[in-house]
Amino acid sequence: MASPASSSSLMWFRKGLRIHDNPALEHASRACDFLYPVFVIDPHYMEPDPTAFSPGSSRAGVKRIRFLLESLADLDSSLKKLGSRLLVLKGSPGEVLIRCLEEWNINKLCFEHDTDPYYQALDNKVKNFASAAGMEIFSPVSHTLFDPADIVARNGGKPPLSYQSFLKLAGKPSWEASPLSTMLSSVPPVGAVGRCEVYEVPTLIELGYNEAEQDEVAPFRGGETVALTRMKEALSNKAWIADFDKPKGNPSAFNKPATTVLSPYLKFGCLSSRYFYQCLQDTYKDVKKHTSPPVSLLGQLLWRDFFYTAAFGTPNFNKMRGNRICKQIPWSDDEQLLAAWREARTGYPWIDAIMVQLRKWGWMHHLARHCVACFLTRGDLFVHWEKGRDVFERLLIDSDWAINNGNWLWLSCSSFFYQYNRIYSPVSFGKKYDPNGNYIRHFLPVLKDMPKEFIYEPWKAPLNIQTKAKCIIGRDYPNPVVSHDSASKECKRKLAEAYAANQRLNGVVSDEDMKNLRRKLEEDQEEVLRTTKPRRKHSG
Length: 540
Ligand code: FAD
Fold this sequence. Notes:
Blueprint: E1 8-13, H1 23-29, E2 34-41, H2 43-46, H3 62-81, E3 87-90, H4 93-103, E4 108-110, H5 117-132, E5 136-138, H6 148-154, H7 163-170, H8 224-236, H9 238-243, H10 263-267, H11 273-285, H12 297-312, H13 335-342, H14 349-361, H15 366-379, H16 385-395, H17 401-411, H18 428-433, H19 438-443, H20 463-468, H21 484-504, H22 511-531
Parallel strand pairs: 1-2, 1-4, 2-3, 4-5
Bound molecules: flavin-adenine dinucleotide (FAD).
């Protein structure tokens, strides 16, 4: 424990699990005798919850927990090279931290600013304590390119809701012109820890997970070291960077994904988005011409900031009710359809393969995410986007509060994007990229011997073909849960009605209005069923 005469800083790591471009860490290291680099393990986030629908804690799937632990171990080893180490604390972050601030006589508390509502509440509690105790607090914005609060303020207190208006408001980042600091030669030593219990970075087994729960290991390892290598590798392919055109990428490419797979590293801040931005600009200088936002790689980073800003400036961004930018739609809460989607049992191999990739890898290509999110909500099943969001939030290794909610709002045509007549076909979309169905064969091995003609619609295969492929539909792999043709028509009709009601009511839709709308949609559906002939076979 530091004596009152010496000066001590505490660097509180949450995201920002890196040494490079870490202004909070730099500031914490300056002008002090001791530096306490701390990460708090919150049992709610990390400890196994056997009642959850997949291995993991009550909040996160085990794949993301593993990624986090790998990132912490990497950070610890980098700190050790600088003459320090990572101090792992356990417990409720607010309480544990306050105890250590007191015990270690901290003068300076540093942590990266975070806009997620969870951190906003927690940070206020810790900040209140620290400032009452007379500590210096330094909490810079370095997780995003811009400060969302600044952009919202410049827009009269509301976030810009279109990408173009966001770009116009954002302009160039203030730090763009001067190189970011990416190296630290040393940091002050850790002081005595006194009565505070300090741990090493735990393993999954130490957290209570057993081998069996760990399933297939995702092919992406966590940590700043891997992040920087991965980014440099991507940037070294200058032609690829120059031609990067997001909507043209192949969502079924899995041996070599069509995008960078830097999202989990950006999520945990193992990679600084600002450093990535600067390196990308340097690469652009070396090529004759390159693509531009929104489709370029730079454009993707700006999408990230766009959603951070929209999320920060919109109360109840993660909900339909009470969210002023969200259309009020009487989604269904059909648990069976939700479970079929979540457990890769929809009977549409393209959809199910993506959901298996989600469970096994915790990452899928952006367009693959589009397909399954559209299918669950406005495309086929009409299930509430919040339910799908929850599944992604748990299983993605890059699960990010602002980006995940923003994209679910988008894909369900609840906000940002309103062309609900444009629906992804669960059959022909994937086929365009991967006619042989290699992606499906990899993630759904039960279909690996299905001939190419039927791989996207196996229920159409004659029985002798199913037998030969050792996959009987209805026994080894399910029949489709809905007929895409009729389900998508139904969805469009419901969306049209809901949009009309939202417009009529000027966006102010009461519980009573929702009840009436739901009733009307159900009555209309019964009418449609009465007047249409018996169902045709599923046609995808
Ligand atoms: P690249 O194309 O290489 O892009 C580089 C970086 O730009 C990404 O790492 C990411 O940080 C950012 N980016 C790319 N696309 C988007 C986008 N549409 N919106 C915001 N930022 C973007 N991304 C997450 O990081 N976390 C999530 O929880 C998440 N949930 C999603 C849910 C749905 C329903 C959909 C449709 C998309 C979601 N995305 C999410 C956005 C996007 O799919 C991923 O960021 C991207 O696929 C990650 O792969 P990459 O790193 O190879 O992307």
